[in-house]
Design brief:
The protein has one helix at residues 2-18; strands at 57-61, 74-84, 89-95, 98-102, 109-114, 119-121, 133-135, 140-145, 155-156, 160-166. It is mainly beta and 170 residues long. The protein is rod-shaped, with a radius of gyration of 26 Å.
Length: 170
């Protein structure tokens, strides 16, 4: 009985340890950390290189439910992004361009999604923003158009592809 309790305790500890895996863990490079330089007189100054690596971290806010206007058959939503990412990275938030609106007993209607800004850069970004880019603090507005809807209750689902991307060297 005692062996069974000890085995259960050990197994519980292993299960707990297995759930404590870090996500997106970054390590500072320790290459040449202990490197030294011998300086001989006379010297006015000597340089020391300092290195740090901070991992990117961001949060994207997207809508979970959007209600289209029954008269215009359109709707709108806003996407926002906050965080701290490297200067040569951007967060992309790209919705499906089209999706099906469904109603039992009727043919599906194709709805279109238009979100012109899909790339978000850190608020401290000092480069030139390209087409479809915004700073994280600016957010992005978008519209949905389902002009073919007729009477009744319609439902549809579309997805957002959310990624942290590295700029491609020109």
């Amino acid at each position: 009985m005692r062996k069974m309790k000890l085995a259960s305790l050990a197994l519980a500890g292993l299960m707990l340890a297995g759930t404590m895996m870090p996500a997106m863990a970054y390590e500072n490079s320790t290459a040449n950390v202990d490197a030294t330089a011998e300086i001989t007189a006379p010297v006015d100054a000597e340089e020391c290189e300092v290195y740090a690596e901070v991992g990117s971290d961001f949060t994207v806010t997207i809508p979970k439910k959007i209600t289209l206007d029954g008269a215009t058959k359109t709707g709108s939503y806003t996407v926002s992004c906050t965080g701290n990412i490297a200067g040569d990275e951007y967060v992309s938030v790209t919705p499906d361009a089209q999706f099906a609106m469904k109603q039992a007993g009727k043919a599906d209607v194709t709805a279109s999604v238009t979100q012109e800004t899909t790339k978000f850069r850190d608020n401290l970004f000092t480069g030139t923003k390209g087409a479809g880019e915004a700073l994280m603090s600016e957010g992005a507005s978008a519209t949905i158009d389902a002009a073919g809807l007729t009477a009744g209750e319609w439902n549809g689902i579309f997805n957002f592809a959310i990624n942290l991307n590295q700029d491609v060297a020109q």
